[in-house]
């Protein structure tokens, strides 16, 4: 299928790295390969569509979300549009944020936001890539709603008592991302340098944006 | 039980260890393929299944399997069950194809009973 | 779609425990909060999950709870809040919660 397919065994295993082929195939890996092949043979999906989707997934990273946050920090009108409609604001920057609505919530001196999904692991993949394992783990999903400050402390994030911790349980049709506070001392930085301060974790709300310097 | 097993907000659990060995991994190609398959069969063009059907299928794996399987193992289990239910793929062809793929795999298949049952203590320790 | 609740309305989440696929987390059932946003019409996930249309779409609300109302002995302070997206079929007017009542 793949133009650059150089394997000579009968199935399309071009997505596997050589070192994975040294390990026995698990039941669910075999299921994945089989389902993918059958869907292609039946014409439900095409090899090209599958390959394009894999490339799209690989292309998603926290960089897109960081770019938006940096723009929001320097352009309050953009921030207002982003708070109103993240997908449309993303498009302004040439970012395809997909079709699932995303809501941005803004940290302020009074409020610190943090995102969790207690029912599954909903996550704004289209803007910040695939989730880290801890986000999907039982400890994070269970405890973030009932003891958020302790969970944040496990990330090294201590929120002062007089700041409201606002937990968003992402349970339904929307996904959430946090606009962190712009760090002190970042006044002279350009947008690209500002974006470097915006990590995946601060857009989930478990940390603050990186300090300057 | 009033509470379903996947609905875990507020349950006791161990600490989050964001810097520990289980905190992050680079997704393997087969995991991304699971994600890609789901996105394609649920896209606007195909609409074969919804994310709600994916979620239901994951929940219906039940508390034992849910906790044993990794994230994308749950996903492909649910996607596959949905595709079988909808008549997109039949069990016979799926079983044969899985066997063929495993036999052609250079290192063969995992031979012990699958999935491996790991004593479940939340994986968090005390 | 006309939304049954306005922004600012006090609502309680039904204390209902059906089997099957629902998107209302256990920890807010029976709890009272305030509508902070109306997210618009969404198809019913309890129907979509079983291959049905999920129509008619219904309003989805953001409901804000005082975190201290959700957990006994919550030690994070009284300002902390928890916001959950809840479909309209899970919400009732919180009539008995009017201000001035002793609790």
Automatic annotation (TrEMBL), chain A:
SUPFAM superfamilies: Nitrile hydratase alpha chain. Residues 1-20 are annotated as: Disordered. The keyword Metal-binding applies. Residues 28-207 form the Nitrile hydratase alpha/Thiocyanate hydrolase gamma domain. It holds the Pfam family NHase_alpha. One of its GO terms (molecular function) is transition metal ion binding. Keywords: Metal-binding. Gene3D superfamilies: Nitrile hydratase alpha /Thiocyanate hydrolase gamma (3.90.330.10). Transmembrane segments: none annotated. This is Nitrile hydratase subunit alpha. It comes from Pelagibius litoralis. The lineage of its organism: Bacteria, Pseudomonadati, Pseudomonadota, Alphaproteobacteria, Rhodospirillales.
From TrEMBL, chain C:
It holds the Pfam family NHase_beta_C. InterPro entries: CN_hydtase_beta_dom_C, Elect_transpt_acc-like_dom_sf. Residues 2-92 form the Nitrile hydratase beta subunit domain. This is Nitrile hydratase subunit beta. It comes from Pelagibius litoralis. The lineage of its organism: Bacteria, Pseudomonadati, Pseudomonadota, Alphaproteobacteria, Rhodospirillales.
């Amino acid at each position: 299928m793949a133009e650059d397919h150089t394997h000579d065994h009968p199935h399309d295993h071009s997505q596997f790295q050589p070192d994975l082929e040294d390990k026995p195939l698990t039941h669910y890996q075999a299921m994945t390969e089989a389902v993918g092949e059958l869907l292609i043979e039946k014409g439900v999906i095409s090899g090209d569509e599958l390959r394009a989707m894999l490339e799209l997934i690989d292309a998603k990273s926290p960089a897109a979300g960081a770019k938006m946050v940096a723009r929001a920090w320097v352009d309050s009108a953009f921030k207002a549009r982003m708070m109103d409609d993240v997908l449309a604001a993303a498009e302004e920057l040439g970012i395809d944020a997909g079709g699932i609505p995303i809501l941005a919530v803004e940290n302020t001196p009074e409020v610190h936001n943090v995102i969790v999904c207690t029912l599954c692991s909903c996550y704004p993949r289209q803007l910040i890539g695939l989730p880290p394992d801890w986000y999907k783990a039982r400890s994070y999903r269970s405890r973030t709603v009932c003891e958020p400050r302790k969970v944040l402390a496990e990330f090294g994030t201590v929120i002062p008592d007089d700041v409201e911790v606002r937990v968003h349980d992402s349970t339904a049709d929307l996904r959430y991302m946090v606009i962190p506070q712009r760090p002190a001392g970042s006044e002279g930085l350009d947008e690209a340098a500002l974006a470097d301060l915006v990590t995946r974790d601060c857009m989930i709300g478990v940390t603050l944006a990186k300090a300057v310097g | 039980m009033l509470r379903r097993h996947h609905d875990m907000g507020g349950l006791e659990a161990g600490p989050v260890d964001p810097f520990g060995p289980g905190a992050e991994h680079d997704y393997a190609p087969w995991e991304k393929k699971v994600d890609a398959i789901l996105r394609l069969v649920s896209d606007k063009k195909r609409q074969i299944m919804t994310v709600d059907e994916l979620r239901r299928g994951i929940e219906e794996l039940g508390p034992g399997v849910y906790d044993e399987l990794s994230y994308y193992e749950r996903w492909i289990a649910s996607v596959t069950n949905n595709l079988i239910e909808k008549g997109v793929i039949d069990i016979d062809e799926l079983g044969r194809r899985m066997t063929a793929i495993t036999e052609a795999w250079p290192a063969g298949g995992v031979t012990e009973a699958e999935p491996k049952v790991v004593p479940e203590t939340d994986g968090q320790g005390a | 779609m006309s939304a049954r609740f306005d922004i600012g309305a006090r609502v309680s989440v039904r204390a209902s425990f059906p089997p099957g696929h629902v998107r209302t987390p256990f920890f807010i059932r029976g709890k009272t909060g305030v509508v902070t946003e109306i997210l618009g019409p969404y198809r019913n996930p309890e129907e979509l999950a079983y291959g049905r249309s999920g129509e008619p779409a219904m309003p989805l609300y953001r409901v804000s709870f005082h975190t201290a109302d959700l957990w006994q002995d919550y030690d994070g302070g009284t300002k902390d809040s928890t916001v959950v997206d809840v479909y309209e079929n899970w919400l009732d007017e919180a009539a008995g919660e009017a201000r001035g009542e002793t609790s």
